Amino acid sequence: MIVGYCRVSSEGQTLDAQQAALRQAGAEKVFAEKVSGAVTDRKALAKAIAALSAGDVLLVTRLDRLARSTRDLLNVLATISEKRAGFRSLADAMIDTTSAHGKLIIAVLRALAEFERSMILARTADGRKRAMDRGVRFGRKPKLSQFQIAEAVARRANGEALADIGRSYGVSHSTISRL
Q: Which residues are the active-site residues?
């Protein structure tokens, strides 16, 4: 069975042309919605994927009707693949998981997305290192100043109870015990 999915971004747009193209291409069921592509939790898309069985195909008129980013596309395709179904785009013939050529293109897209992700992680780590070299501190701001820490350590050395020291600074006894 061919299951169609169509989407427009705003209320002013119409779904008629997409629905007609999907039906002409053989879609027996068509799920449609008016929602931004940036929204990842799309109810009609979820229903369309839920309607898929092994051997079925999810069909869209154009790839941008399904996903806004490569990562989003790959996530949707993985969900479809888990159902042992295929995916096709009418306007983007190379994106067809029912053909060997289409499977190759998807594999290349996956590799590119993975490469992009590792590049982002590398740039982030590099930026974090440069910031640390400049003296930028990460994490929570300390609850106590250096003066308060020194004072609390001295009070603790004099035998004062952790709970009493903590209460005087407005922190827990655990915070004082870690000093």
A: 9
